[in-house]
Amino acid sequence: MKFNKLKYFKYLLILLVVILCFTLFIFFINSKKTISTYSSVDINKKHLIDLTGDGVNETIEIIQSDNSYDVKITTQKSTILLSSLLEDNFLCSNGEGNIFKLRFINISRDNKPEILIQGIKNNSTINYLFSYNNNFELTLQNSNNVCGVIDSNLNKTPQFISLNYNKNKENIRSNMIINNELINSTRDSLVVPGIDSIIPLIKYINLDVEVESHPDVFTDSISSKDLSNLWKLDKSNFSYKLIDGFFFDTEIDDNGDIKECNYTLYFNRKNLKDNTIEPFNVEVTLNKDYYNNTLRISKMNFFFNKK
User: Fold this and answer.
1) What is the pTM of this model?
2) What is the DSSP letter of 76?
3) CA 236/CA 272 separation, integer angstroms
4) In this structure, which CATH number among 3.10.450, 1.10.3470, 2.30.30, 3.40.50 belongs to the domain 195-304?
5) pLDDT band at residue 17 using 50, 70 and 90 as cut-offs
6) How far apart are CA 265 and CA 246, in angstroms?
7) In 3D, which of 220, 189, 213, 190 has the Cα closest to residue 289?
8) How would residue 32 be classed by pLDDT, with cut points 50, 70 and 90?
């Protein structure tokens, strides 16, 4: 009888260990999914994310004043403002039309996600990439207005891509983070997924006048409802200006080529009557057109006054 009790408790202990391991595994997977969604976080809320890889969440809070944005990170040992890592101690401007975005992205493919910030500084776009390597540090900074992540669905190191849409494709930059080191991976053959469809769309929205035909950048399968968004711009009363954008790949084909990606484009929408400015976002999905070997827009949603 004593042997049976011992055996029973042994099996019970094993079962508890298995349940605990399974729970931790599910938590780990869900945590990774949260990190890799590439969604811009709600800047009015605090966020709990493990940024240092020690298994304990840090608290991330966006600090807003009348003229600036900052990010406060609280760890078990200390508190840091990301502005303190800059020479001028100033992160981004706050004001009418200045849209501040923060994302947690994991281009290093480790357990320490990077912080990507897009905003306005000195009336120009600004991108920051912060990472943790024993301490928080500024890894990358530039003034390009479109950036994103590719190779996130391959057994490769993801690339962080940035470019200035106003300069077409002349200034494309690519970087990777390998063993906590920023590597310049820019090459002449680098192709930004879907950019040949995105640039005409941006130019169309930025135009000050209505035009009868839309740019030839859409798939045949796009819904008439999505296309009808183009006629809601009301350019007799509003003008539009691109601020910046973010993209990431979502699917690859059997050859390892990107067959689907998503873009979010952030505009200022100016009321021509009273000159007030409000945010205007465009979210699009692009799919591979194998006939033309291009990525074309298959879904398009407009969001007025969305921050």
Assistant:
1) 0.85
2) S
3) 8
4) 3.10.450
5) low
6) 7
7) 220
8) very low
Tokens 């469809």 correspond to: 197
Contact criterion met (CB below 8 Å) for 200 and 213:
no
Report yes or no: 244 and 266 within 8 Å, Cβ to Cβ. Answer: yes
Q: Beta strands 146-150 and 238-252: pairing type?
A: parallel
Show the CA angle centred on residue 223, arms to residues 219 and 229, nearest 5°.
Answer: 100
Q: Where are the domains of the chain?
A: 1-35, 41-145, 195-304
- Residue with structure tokens 């605090």? 46
Render pLDDT for 80-128 as a digit per residue (tens, 0 to 9).
Answer: 999 999 999 999 999 888 889 999 999 988 889 999 999 999 999 999 9
Helix (H) or strand (E) holding 287: strand 277-289
CB 136 within 8 A of CB 80: yes
Spatial separation of the C-alpha atoms in residues 281 and 264, rounded to whole Å: 7
DSSP for 143-171? --SEEEEESTTSSS--EEEEE-GGGTTTT
For residue 158, the one-letter residue type is: P
**CB atoms near residue 157 (< 10 Å):** 14
The amino acid present at 298, given as its one-letter code, is S
54-68, 161-175, 217-231: segment of lowest average pLDDT? 161-175
**If you compute the radius of gyration of the chain from its CA atoms, what whole number of angstroms results?**
23
> 149 has which bridge partners?
160, 248
Strand partners, 296: 287
What span, in angstroms and rounded, lies between the C-alpha atoms of 168 and 166? 6
Confidence of residue 30 (pLDDT cuts 50, 70, 90): very low
Mean pLDDT, residues 13-30:
56
